Amino acid sequence: MSETHLSPLPRLVPPSGPAGPDQPWWNAQRGSTMPFRRYRRTPAVQVPDRRDWPGRTADRAPLWASVDLRDGNQSLANPMDIQRKTMLFDLLVRMGFKDIEVGYPSASEADFSFLRELITRDRIPDDVTVSVFTPARPELIDRTFEAIEGADRAMVHLCHATACLWREVVFQMTTTDVERMAVTAAEHVLRRADAAGRTRFRFEYSPETFNITEPEYVLGLSNTVAALWDAAPDRPVTLNLPTTVETDHPHVFADQVEWMHRNLERRESIILSVHPHNDRGTAVASAELAVLAGADRIEGTLFGNGERTGNVCLATLALNLFSQGVDPQLDFSDIDGIRRTVEAANQMPVPARHPYAGDLVYTAFSGTHQDAISKGLRAMARRAEEADEPESRTAWQVPYLPIDPKDVGRDYEAVVRVNSQSGRGGIAHVLRGSYGLDLPRALSRELAEHVQRAADRDGTEVNSRRLWEIFSTEYLEPADPYLTLKDYEVSHGPAGTGLRALVTVRGGTELALLGSGADPATAFTRALTAAGIPAELLTLTQHPLTGAERPRATAGPASRTTPRTAAYGQLSATGRTWWGAAIADRPDGAELQAVVSAINRVHA
Ligand SMILES: CC(=O)SCCNC(=O)CCNC(=O)[C@H](O)C(C)(C)COP(=O)(O)OP(=O)(O)OC[C@H]1O[C@@H](n2cnc3c(N)ncnc32)[C@H](O)[C@@H]1OP(=O)(O)O
Ligand SMILES: CC(C)C(=O)C(=O)O
Ligand SMILES: [Mg+2]
């Protein structure tokens, strides 16, 4: 199988100086009146000479943990009822999640009852661990343990804020007080777990607002809690580092994670987890760099629902890995089904541009992209044929499409959609895909001008049916045809092809024509010329139309199941060239009709 050979990366040329107003090319921008001086850059943790993550690549999926049912749920205007929660839980299980935070049972009756239902109805698969969130408040920890009573396995997720602003404003506590709160709560959790009987417990600790907490302080708290819970390789503690409110560039977070990864005690007994939020729009980058920096696990939601701008999107993360040839370990083969369930559970739409899942993310409207995609798809088909393997196994290399839409359950129909930004490549692609027509390049270029005019006039998309209408009106069934072929008869002899044809000319005159030539179309143009309708045949091509390749066509040749022929002819007349096209039951009929089509355009 042939592969694209990429040339080596060019050497980086050092910039001549810092980009800025001193450069001659710098456009003079005016200063804004935005009150930017109110905001401060977060002091970044320094990791001198100890930054390994930039040199690493992701070669396997992290442990995925869904927090759709807790963090996602707490951000909804109408939190999920038990039915919506159940639907989402079942989806997460089907997709392959093994670590699912199912709620905040001390917060609401719905969360509490949902957990009770999962446990009492034995709905938690043996290989799935459900997790429940609790703040560091003893009465709420007690309620949490009531909710998980009787479960086979459960993870108790203890969380409290640690950053200075929260300590001072929310808790009005010193660092020592917050540490005491953490220890008291962790001990309480342990006591309740020890008393809980058959359930096998695991523990998770989240120093909420990790990213803006003093590193030494948060490291100390994490070590203390992990020691208190006696983290061990066979019963690891999950230490979850949230960017509760994302404040910095992703590389700053990566440095923070790497620093924790290197300095944590009992590292081999800790599952190092991250929980990025998307306030700066860089949650995905933060999560990806955090994994390079040492994180083992990522908490997030499907399509990024969550507080404010949301949690990190697990679909994007998993499919980013997939697009790099790494097993995502989650099943996204029906992304639209997943999206529909998530939209129903959250009562919120997934935007059309959302990576991998949005309606438009595999669609090109622009001409050059369409042309490249169309060529790429045909090249893929050729490579698969050469390698004698199904296309679904052939290495994916199609310009502008990072993954094969079919791998996530989409088809190719929406890949190219035509509007005023489209060109001949896209138009030819749609006619080929929807109607099986393989237009010659020059004809598709000519058709593109008609389509462009229609798109400019209508200001809307030209769907495949409208494209067919434009093509048909221009070439196949003009409103007021100059010439109509009523009948014909072709004979083949040693001297070439003979043709008898009966045509009507606009106004009703009938002409009986007689001609000969190398083929019926040449004989026809000669006969027409002799009858005073001058034309010279320049090119003629034809191909069979089986109908099989036309999935959704509602007009034109698609309605037929018997094989037909499409023919395209180019004539010279009135000092220029004219294309014609036709579809007919027989090849010679299609060729003659293509000549008629071109003549009709001469006399339109
Ligand atoms: C970053 C995160 O996502 S954390 C998860 C946040 N999720 C939620 O809050 C959703 C569910 N929460 C709730 O339904 C409610 O907050 C409840 C029922 C849990 C508690 O309600 P209330 O007791 O009325 O408290 P309220 O919601 O006002 O919370 C504020 C109190 O909790 C304290 N608190 C906040 N977070 C924590 C924490 N993690 N650990 C301990 N105490 C905390 C605050 O200091 C404040 O205490 P104060 O009243 O003594 O000043
Ligand atoms: C509970 C914690 C992990 C959280 O959701 C956050 O800090 O964003
Ligand atoms: Mg969160």
From TrEMBL:
Stored Gene3D superfamilies: 3.30.160.270, Aldolase class I
Region annotation (Disordered) ranges: 1-29, 545-566
GO biological process, one term: L-leucine biosynthetic process
Limits of the Pyruvate carboxyltransferase domain: 62-336
Example of a GO MF term: 2-isopropylmalate synthase activity
Record-linked InterPro entries: 2-isopropylmalate_synth_dimer, AIPM/Hcit_synth_CS, Aldolase_TIM, LeuA-like_post-cat, LeuA_allosteric_dom_sf, LeuA_N_DRE-TIM, PYR_CT
Keywords, sorted A to Z: Amino-acid biosynthesis, Branched-chain amino acid biosynthesis, Transferase
Highest taxon above the source species: Bacteria
The protein's enzyme class: transferase
Catalytic activity field: 3-methyl-2-oxobutanoate + acetyl-CoA + H2O = (2S)-2-isopropylmalate + CoA + H(+)
Family in the record: Belongs to the alpha-IPM synthase/homocitrate synthase family. LeuA type 2 subfamily.
UniProt cross-references to PANTHER family, sorted A to Z: 2-ISOPROPYLMALATE SYNTHASE, PTHR46911
Name this polypeptide is given: 2-isopropylmalate synthase
Organism: Streptomyces variegatus
